[in-house]
Amino acid sequence: MAAIASEVPLPGDNRLGAILGDLSSKGWSWQPHMLPDALYHALRAEVLAANLQDDLAPAGIGRETDYQLDRTIRKSRIAWMDGSTPAQAGFLQWAEQLRQSLNQGLMIGLFEFEACFAVYQPGEFYDRHLDSFEGARNRVVSLVVYLNDDWPAENGGALVVWPEGADETSEPAARLLPEQAGVVFMLSETVPHAVEVTQAPRFGIAAWWRVNPSIQGHIDPLA
Ligand SMILES: O=C(O)CCC(=O)C(=O)O
Ligand SMILES: [Fe+2]
User: Fold this and answer.
1) Tens-digit pLDDT profile for residues 82-102
2) Ligand 1 contact, 193 CB (< 6 A)
3) Start and end of every Fe2OG dioxygenase domain (predicted)?
C-alpha cells in the first residue's frame, strides 16, 4: 500500500516558524488551509464513508483507565486511525514530519502520535476542557484538522480557544471556524478549549503527540 505523499513546510519555512513562535508565545496556533489538498480529499472521503457506514463510536472523556461516557460534556463520535489506508498512512507521515520539526524547534521530545476521525452531528458539542488528563502528563501537543468543504459562520461549531491557563471567567482568545484543511496546534496541558454546538455535520481529525512515558517518569528509560 502506498501512502499518499505530501510535503510539510521544512524548518526555516515561514509557516513552521509561525507555528513554533505561536506555541512558545501563546500556546496555540491557527493555520488556515494547511493540510495538503490530496490528503484533505482522501481523508474527507474516508470520514464521510465511516459516517455513512456508522463506523464511529461515541467518544468518551477522562483517563483511559477511568473511561467515562458523559454525554453532557462531550457529544460526538470518533474512529481511531490505524494507518491501514493510503490516506491514513499519508496523514501519519505528514504528522511525523511535523513531530520532527516541533521537536527540533521546541526541544520538547514528542514521541508517540495518536489520531482519530471525529464527527459532530447537528446539536453535538464538546464543553470546555484540557486534552491532557490531569496528573498524567502524557498528551503534550494537540493537533486538530478540519475536513469540511464549506463552513458558513451560521453553522456554529466553532472551536473556542482560551489563553494558556485561563480560568472559567476569562474571555476566549479566539473562536475558530472548522474550515477546509485548517489546522490547530495547542499545548494539551494548558490551553482550555471547547467546541460550540454545531448546526451542520462537522468533520475533522483530533490527534495528540505524547512524550515517552518511561523517560518522563524516569522508569528504566534504557530498558
Ligand atoms: O474538533 C475540534 O475543534 C476540537 C476537538 C477537541 O477538542 C478534542 O477532540 O479534544
Ligand atoms: Fe480537545
Assistant:
1) 999 999 999 999 999 999 999
2) yes
3) 112-211
